[in-house]
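Following the same procedure, backbone shapes were mapped to integers, as reproduced here:
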Amino acid sequence: MNKQIKIWLLGNTGLRNPNRIQEGFSVFANSAFVGHLHSRENEIGFMNLLDEKGIIQNEEGKDSSGSHARKWRLMFAKNGFIYPQIQKKDGRQEELGALDDITPFGRSFLKADTYPAVQECYLRAMSVEQFPMTDGMHYFSPLRWLLAIMLELEKRTGSSELSRIEFALWGHTTDPSYNLQEVVDNILDLRQRRATTTAKRSFDKKEIAKRGENYNKKPDNFLDYSDMNMRYLRISGILQRKGRGLIIVPTKHVLAEKLAKTTASSEPIMKQYKLLCAGAPLPTDDAEVSKALLDDLIQKMKERHILYDISDLPLNTPAEINIARQRLENILAQTDEIQYANDQRNQWKEIRDYMTLLIKGGGKLIYDEDNAIEVPKDETPAYLEWILWRATLAIDHMLNKPYEVRGFKLDSDFLPVSTAGGGKGDLYCEFQDFTILTEVTMSTSSRQEAMEGEPVRRHVSDAVLKYDKPVYGMFIAIRIDTNTAETFRHGIWYAKGDMKQRLDIVPLTLRQFQKYFVAMFEANEANPAKLRELIVKCESRRDILEAPAWKQYIDATVSEKASEIIGKTIAHKDSEEILIPAGAVVKHDVFGEGQVVALEASFDDYPANIIELPYLRSLPDEVSFCPDGKSLLHDRFGEGTVCSYVIVFSNVIMRLSYPKAFKDSLLTIEL
């Protein structure tokens, strides 16, 4: 097989994630660029619109030519969502449809409101044979061709699994002009030789160099394009991840067999485009095939002892049968997600590593030649929600199901499709005695408070009203803006009817959460009670510290609590000083109820040594508490120490020494 190699591309390097296409296409469908996406002016305009809507990040106007828009246009057309440009040799444009206008299939794609529905759209698009073959006469479907390879592998080995290096060298480098048996022979030969070597990375490089002798572009493309092509293939729903490679989804085996029966076509490309733009038929549109798929799925669910009920559904037409199948697939997916959730406690090191990649802003970590993890730089918001979801699953003991915790969608490999939709919190974790609502953001600028301050408090408020148990909020970001910390320090929200709520929301950096998360697992003490201990301790001084000092206190507390867990030490809470918030209500067994209105402090640089400061609402602007909650810092007089608090009772004003008087059994503080 020494013919010149041409790698087929299902996507492009500017749009590696097909999960982003629907969101961008929705923006396009509601814009003035429908039917007008080919001039340079419109390309730049659409690119700027994508940037404005947050679909892409055109950093500092880096792309001024509109190339981003051209890449999106290419994917819209390749999948049949808009009418592609017809070459003169293939026919007239008007015979197909107006250039760049939305097709009937594109309208169906916009209406796909579930992930399985989106997958089916891609499956229909990928089933069309529109990729030219080298003979200049035939067209092929990469998906159908690859399924034929994998089914032949399964026939010979018992498994359809195709590894990353096998796909790189003999998957997307071949087409139906190759002999199927010889392609599989080469895959199995590669597999056998690779299994006997200990230096797999070196082996792979030599094999790529050898295969690259018949390829006139960069050898790096073999692996780089593999990752992108496999990601597009997986969104069809018929293939899923196996290590860094692919395997046929067991419940879609019958469908794979039907699709693989034809891989190439001699029909004119105009006919293929018409099929693509109208919505290509699938084998599941046939009653016999859809029934066979349903029966196969029922058998697999029985083998796994999964309960189901479709007795209320008619099974007379292909559409009705497919509705029943989709119900069972949803039950199966939920069952698989529960099993995935149960395994997360064993995956805490991988979760830790994903957090590290997110802290860096994305990237890849390669464990070995066959195992790696990656956070695409343009998908960090989705991965941040996803990894915090996995972290809470690892901590375990939740009453709600894993799919009830998250607000975002997953693909068949349990990877994030997108971030959670607006209107509700990111992660709702209900435990036996309390609930934790986790909100996350990749934003680190001063806009963080403007974007997150209101919705986070509103979501926590809604949760407080919903759950008949304490609700704690965790706000996690790469960096916490001080203004955001100030908003959550007060945590005030007025619910319906002007009901005032004081919300418990603690801002943590991802690095701080990671430190505590790792400590819990290293000490084998990962449980929700430990997480609540951290939250309660972090918020204990929010009333007496200003935002910068509170951030310092939170950081110190995380380090202290993490060390405490690892060292198996016991915190001596009785030795900690009682902290008095501004305006605190004090109850005395003799004098009744009173309120803190001022404090007296000693400053070394103040001439009279002792100074009285108002403390009903807060300290004066020139004075602030240090992170320890006991010492003071004055702009003019430097460091100081609290000596006493001035308390107004109904019949007397008293100065009670601090901390001695506040440890008196006759006195209690309402915090």
Confidence is low (pLDDT under 50) at residues 569-575. The chain has three domains: 18-285, 350-575, 585-670. Residues 435 and 467 are 8 Å apart (CA to CA).
